Amino acid sequence: MTQLVLLGGGHAHLQVLHGLAQQPLERTQVTLVSPFPQLVYSGMVPGWLAGHCHSADCTIALGPLAARGGVRFVQAAAVSLDPAVRRLRLDDGREIGYDVLSVDIGSAMDREAIPGASEHGLFVRPMEHFMERAQAALARAGHAVRDAVVVGGGAAGVELALALRYRLGAAARIGIVTGGPPVLEAYPAAARRLGLRALKRCGVALFEQSCRRVAADHVTLDNGERLPCDLAVLAIGASAPGWLGSSGLALDERGFIATGPTLQSTSHGEVFAAGDVASRIDAPRPRSGVYAVRAGPPLALNLRRFIAGAPLQRYVPQTRSLNLLACGDKRAIVSWGRFAAEGRWAWRWKDRIDRRFVGQFTEGLR
Question: What are 250-266's pLDDT values in tens digits?
């Protein structure tokens, strides 16, 4: 019997599990390995932080979803991989062998990149930890957050800063530290302008310096300025999980799994990867949930074809993607290519898309 291991409960693997529930693989034992019992859908986290939805609205239980397709669920994290003998070692000491491995564990954040951040900051990833700890920080008895600082000027940083502004109200001071690059640097000019306008409209202070240190009650910028801070949120750039460095798989220059047009590792054909942990050598794309979701169906198809010994299908990611950024106050920015617009209609559109996505994996399981 073929052993297929799905490492990670990421967005692409949701599609694989959904497909297995509809059409199980013959003569194949499928095992899902994830350190968390649920997946937090990242697209709804800013809405949750703002208070527009409950945590249950943006989480997908992995165990029941796996069981629906006859998939064994193992709650653990990988700590090493030996592709020569096709074995994974887990953080609980167990080892799991595989014939085919698919990796969708997302990216990590360098917790030592900013001194003091690991002790005093809330890292956005993993999302499951972030939601738990952010809720505890905001609900701490006898403590009201008055000064919040978000470190990171990408989409996540902007959305979370605006969400905190809405959640904490006008009395709180909210700042966003971009680290030098322009806000929403990866977005087209029209979307960047709307993002800056939203930050200004909502009274979020913009600091274009880098964060040098995080302390219990302030953050220090590289120009020496200290910003009072009750709550520091780290939405810094993605990094590759450290254990991949000794995995023997081909990696890109940043340590992510190098893959080709069929989503296979460029060095080990029996290993597939998708989502933030993968790096398409032939068609580089930003690390975004949009691309992770889109990679799900072709990944599911190619896993089936590989196990059946059939030709694999090339997957070409779209060159443009629809992006919807939450603005905290039930408004959103929509961008497509060079086009960008903002409004409450965009928030309603985003909310419908997000809830529909989560609903397809939770219907009948709650």
Answer: 999 999 999 999 999 99
